[in-house]
Amino acid sequence: MRLVPVIALALACTAAAGGAATPSQALQRGDIVITGGSLFDGIRDDVVPNNGILVRSGIFLEVGADFAARDLSSATVIRLADDEYVLPGLFDLHAHYAVDLFGEGRVDEYVANPLVFLGNGVTTTFPAGEVDPEGMMAARRRIERGEQPGPRILSSGPYFGSARPGWNAASETPERIRHEVDEWAARGVAGLKAKGIQPLQLAALIDQAHRYGLTVTGHLDSGFRNTVNPRDAIAMGIDRIEHFLGGDAISGDNAAYSSLESLDVSRPEVDAICQLFLKRNVYYDATLSAYGYWYDPKDARVFTQWVDEMSFLTPHAREVVKARLPRRPTEQFRRIYEVKFKEIKRFYDAGGGRLITSGTDHPSWGEYLSGFGTHRELQALVLAGLPPAAALKAATINAARAMHLGDALGSVAPGKLADLVIVRGNPLQDIRNSRHVERVMVRGTIYDAATLLESAKGKLGPTTDGDDGWWKGNVRFK
Ligand SMILES: [Zn+2]
User: Residue 11's pLDDT is what?
Assistant: First the structure.
């Protein structure tokens, strides 16, 4: 049995034409027309003048249309200034909704976080291992029903591996894993995430997931102590890899990070693993900025604050977070951060540009929030040497394709689902302009970004020490 993802079905049910031809139609009430400014469509490497985009019922009906001689009176018309740029809605494929606020372990937070993602132009998120998969599924349904603004949530379900609270490796037989995949597929996950998994478990996970057309990604290791090197996961058929490329330069004699921190990316083994990714079309989330988070002083180019992120915490949460800072710096992560800039450039130069996706893995103790992380990750990719257009593709079309949603999302094109971002300033000239989100459209509904962010302020976290409502609604683990 192979199930078609729900999102693809939704698209197939629409009659919108694909391709470049966009016959002009009479406008209807409820249509949105966006004219002026410039367009980065997610496919081309440059920007073009935005003649006009017509959105109807959550679909891009016409792109590049000429509205000069047409009657727009029944549509909502948005006229952009010359310094405004339309981009496809941004993806975060490693989008934790978890916050780690009080030494109490991680808690999935789905009240303020969806607003923060959307207010940053992030319209699609893959949570990459949920602490509270039922709660996340309920939040996703509320968002889909229009009861709560938020990005599309491509549910990941729980972690498969020791990262899951209560995971008992000995009892997780391949049969049991297959059974769990059946259950989560039936509940509508969009992909699965392995972290801390053993080889036989991962092989079963991948094989069973593929029966449903689901992708699998993994935070893997070196092969040391019954872990899995990305090289071996690729042989098993894994679709995506998080954090590092792996391969023979990451020795199975010790944990991956001890090799990674001193990796010479010019080694032939690094080229060999790049070629394996290319040959097997495996997508790669380098999560550069996540490594930059774990040491101090941080890379001041990437870890600037253009919005006071702690203002999204409740006053109580803010006090608790402030009292816990600064965190203990991790020198190993400084070295890994530097290596990873070279590693992703090596991968790009080897021809991996189409396989790079953007994932933030933005750990949050409260001072930096996941929703802002995509802009940090984009900037890090450019600082590593990727052209800005390649970085933007990592966060749009590549990410959509990585989730088997390339026909539905990831570019501004006729027939696709209407997700887009309007930013001020050309992000191809300075990638930091991606931060200047003015408006965001998801499912054809347009929001003012500042209003979304404003509505999330002071909401993230418990209001008092004994805030049972927070703990009940947001499952926690140590
Ligand atoms: Zn993660």
Answer: 46
Distance of CA 245 to the CA centre of its chain: 18
Q: Are strands 420-424 and 437-442 parallel, antiparallel or unpaired?
A: antiparallel
CA of 128 to the centre of ligand 1 (A): 6
Q: Give residue 143's identity as a one-letter amino acid code.
A: I
3, pLDDT greater than 90: no
Q: How far is the CA of 165 from the centre of ligand 1 (A)?
A: 14
Cβ pair 434, 375 in contact under 8 A: yes
Residue 70 Cα to ligand 1 middle (Å): 49
What's the pLDDT score for residue 13? 40
CA 115 to centroid of ligand 1, rounded, Å: 20
239 alpha-carbon distance from chain centroid: 15
Distance from Cα 290 to the centre of ligand 1, integer Å: 9
Pairing mode, if any, of strands 356-357 and 283-285? parallel
| Contacts for 413 with CB less than 8 Å, ≥ 6 apart | 18, 41, 42, 43, 60, 63
What's the pLDDT tens digit per position in 384-401? 999 999 999 999 999 999
Distance 156 CA to ligand 1 centre (A): 12
In sequence order, the β-bridge partners of residue 86 are: 39, 422
CB-CB contact of 383 with 302 (8 Å): yes
**1 pLDDT exceeds 50?**
no
Closest C-alpha to 190, from 337, 4, 416, 442? 4
Distance between Cα 130 and ligand 1 center (Å): 9
Look at the block and give the residue holding tokens 């990585």: 402
As a whole number of angstroms, the distance between CA 377 and CA 391 comes to 9
Residues with a beta carbon under 5 angstroms from ion ligand 1? 361
